[in-house]
Design goal:
Elements (H helix, E strand, L loop, with lengths): L11 E2 L4 E8 L4 E2 L4 E11 L4 E2 L4 E2 L7 E3 L4 E2 L4 E2 L3 E2 L4 E2 L4 E2 L4 E2 L4 E2 L4 E2 L4 E2 L3 E4 L4 E5 L2 H22 L4
Parallel strand pairs: 1-3, 2-4, 3-5, 4-6, 4-7, 5-8, 6-9, 7-10, 8-11, 9-12, 10-13, 11-14, 12-15, 13-16, 14-17
Antiparallel strand pairs: 17-18
């Protein structure tokens, strides 16, 4: 018998992930080990095929909902406190997205980057550094990589549920 299951909503939650508060979560999302998602001060909406990797934290400011659109990958140890993450974006390992930030569609927030509060990042931007700055536009190679990561986590969740891992 598998140790992991999908919720009735069709998303995967590792046994030691913490999801609390007002959350709206779409199918095929996954929340990995030691993840914390706190919708205690405003609603957090998480789209289809979003993967929130080990040790990441998602929270928001009082009265300011957070929306994470479909196909977003949030890397290990990232902190997301922004109000909007656009479809197909990859938030790198250890990146920090601070309060009320808006990240466009198909962006790459590089590992360790810090997006300052109330900043808007345009669609298809690559952000690096502290504070985060747009350094170039996302290219097709980047987009192909984003898809590989997203698909890998959907498949990995399925393997856990089937008891294969």
């Amino acid at each position: 018998m598998p140790l992991f299951t999908r919720t009735s909503g069709g998303y995967f939650v590792a046994h030691n992930a913490t999801l609390t508060g007002e959350l709206s979560i779409a199918a095929d999302a996954s929340f990995w080990f030691n993840v914390v998602v706190r919708g205690d001060v405003a609603q957090i909406t998480i789209g289809r095929r979003v993967n929130v990797q080990d040790g990441s934290i998602i929270h928001c400011d009082t009265g300011i909902p957070s929306i994470i659109e479909d196909d977003v990958s949030i890397g290990h140890g990232a902190i997301v406190h922004g109000k909007f993450i656009g479809r197909g974006t990859l938030i790198g390992m250890g990146a920090i997205v601070l309060s009320e930030s808006t990240i466009g569609q198909e962006c790459l927030i590089a590992a360790g980057a810090v997006v300052s509060p109330k900043v808007t990042i345009p669609d298809r931007s690559v952000v690096m550094g502290v504070p985060g700055r747009v350094v170039r536009q996302v290219n097709q190679k980047d987009l192909d990589y984003f898809k590989i990561i997203r698909d890998r986590y959907v498949e990995l969740a399925d393997k856990y549920v089937r008891g294969e891992l």
